[in-house]
């Protein structure tokens, strides 16, 4: 897995309009739009997308690397939490004390590094974030929630236990290495 950007790099991307323009410029390139379309048509299968585009594996890897560098694509692994001893699912709504950039970056960095969080979504309304987490038991979930409430930037946490009936919460489409 590629290293995560340092907090200072993440903050620079969020506040630097030049970095945002560069990302938009790269994504607007015809070759990248074709890559998105081919990958989507292939259901995320990279080898099928590569063949449809008529490009070499090295060129595909170069384009994916460029997208990862810009934060457009991520390398992820999809793991069934219940299969690895975390059968208790919860959804937590989180409100921050302040909406200063530093507090937001600190909280989001915590979310990225917390192994219990499988999905973090920024929302509008009474709360600021919706976090989906998996735990080994209810006590573990309660301890996790207490630790989250103790963070300086967190004002409130409303945790609910849930059971997913069907579907998933993956945004975008996963890339699969189908060699």
Query: Overall 3D geometry?
Result: globular
In percent, how much strand structure appears in the residues? Answer: 15-25%
The name of the CATH superfamily of the largest domain reads: Lrp/AsnC effector binding domain/regulation of amino acid metabolism (RAM) domain
**Poorly predicted sequence stretches spanning 5 or more consecutive residues:** 1-14
- Strand order, largest beta sheet: 2-3-1-4
Helix percent band = 40-55%
Q: Provide the gyration radius in Å.
A: 19 Å
Topology as H/E string? HHHHHEHEEHE
In the CATH scheme, the class of the largest domain would be Alpha Beta
Per DSSP E runs of 2 or more residues, the count of β-strands stands at 4
- Second CATH tier, the architecture of the largest domain: 2-Layer Sandwich
Largest sheet: 4 strands, antiparallel
Structural class of the secondary structure composition?
Answer: alpha+beta
Whole-number average pLDDT?
80
